[in-house]
Predict the 3D structure of the following.
Amino acid sequence: MTSRPAQIATIAGKEIHYALRTHVLSLLTGFLILAAMVSLTVSSIALHAEYLTYVQSRDLLLSLGKSINDLVPPAFFPLKLLRGFVEHVEIIGAVLGIVLGYRAAAVERGHSTLMLIMTRPLGRTAFLAGKLAGNMVLIVAGLAATFALGALALFVISGVGLGAADLLRIAIVFAAAILYVGSFFLLGFILALGFARLPTALLVAFAVWLTLVLIAPQIGDTMDPDNQVAGGVFRKLGIAKPEEKEILKSFATYETIRDDIEQASPAKHFERFSFAVLGIKDIYNGQPLADVILDRLADLWWLLGIFAGLVLYLFARPLNIARLSKEQ
Amino acid sequence: MDPAIGIDRLSKRYGSLAALDNLTLEIDRSEIFGFLGHNGAGKTTTINILTTLLAPTSGSASICGCDVVADSMKARQHIGYVPENVRLYDSMTARDNLLFFARLSGVREPSQRIGEVLAILDCPELATKRVGDMSKGQRQRIGLAQAILHRPDVLFLDEPTSGLDPLGIKTLRDLIVKLNRTLGMTIFMNTHLISEVSKTCTSIGVLNHGRLAYRDTIAGVLARFGDDQTLEELYLSLTPAAAA
């Protein structure tokens, strides 16, 4: 009889082999990389436009013989260009996770191989662990390619070399992305193992994706009083942060509801954490990394909690004989 | 020596529906047992319990003396299984599919064993072919190959000739007999094809609404009733649902 680690490695190896054979991973990752590159390019064009406006204003003032002391040059933080990149990982990365998770179960059910595997001297836990391990390797590889190309493109587009501190921040967001995409893999896998009809499982998975990744964060953003005016209503009115907090105390219930809607979305936790670590959110820009992580620790716990909760559920739930093949 | 398959007062209920009702059956080693019955008679439920996929509501079953519930991991070492319409991983070659199942089953020197098994099944040329490009008959052979890689004592086949053309049926039938005669494998075959049973099996059981309605050797059946036609009539008389 084969040892359990060897069985897990066999299942994981087959997952990787099969995914590479069917090109599903390369197609999805390619799409994610393409979208991320487009967003980086658009961000850099916007930055260049901002810079050109500054240069034109400066030249105009100088030609008029006026002082340029009051003209603030645009701040340049290369990691801020990753805003669209993070948003694409948030949306397309979740789709990648769901598709991999759905496939991991649907292929076995559709080909009657799940029944065959379950009649081998192999525990359910080893089977699930192998599936999880193999697909997490695929997710890590896909995200690693995306983040590596993102960092490279950032360097090429911005023309500014990234320091070790910048790379560390990108690496931390990469780790958070693994948890985030991994959670959606688990969602797709659990649903495809549990539903009688595979198309229903896929439909439910995408309904959850739509709700958690697109609708909930959008509702939260729309309900945010500070988002009602471009640039922030409090900022436009010249209201300082302490006063802003004081004002918001009057809307405590409203804010709680709004925040709860956002908290329900793993996408929002990933976004909040990533925007803080990369300094995309202004209040975290230039802050020491440790302070930023401490401040956004709750988001990290949420991401970890969702991933761990889904893993626990996957292993605790017995496999239903009626869901071992597509026909039953 | 323990029988290849021992079933003792086995029942399986789904709510108020009794899929299996107090089934008791013993199948000796090296038999080819044909399990007949109408659709919904409980044949697949029986195979699912014997292959450890499903737990019975009551009663017990064992494979070569290993209880399928209490000692399921050991029981699994004794069995090979080919479900109905097995497809395997269609983007992978037959060899890659077989390597996967050989490793899962702990087969030593899997590459060499795959060569041996494909030779036994007269299809070494299929090794490098993608399963997705194979005919149904070829896929069925590779399905059979994965089931015997680890030299099981008992082979379970669920409607093995379903969807095959006449030549495919004959080829598979010959292979089943070959596996039984040359490797001494006990074969438990679910089917509702009388012709298949009379040409392949050494004994039969007829299941009707979860109950064993008849059990005899093929030699006994033929001695008692004569030819295939009579066997069919016997089957229909024992399973009124099928006759209807």
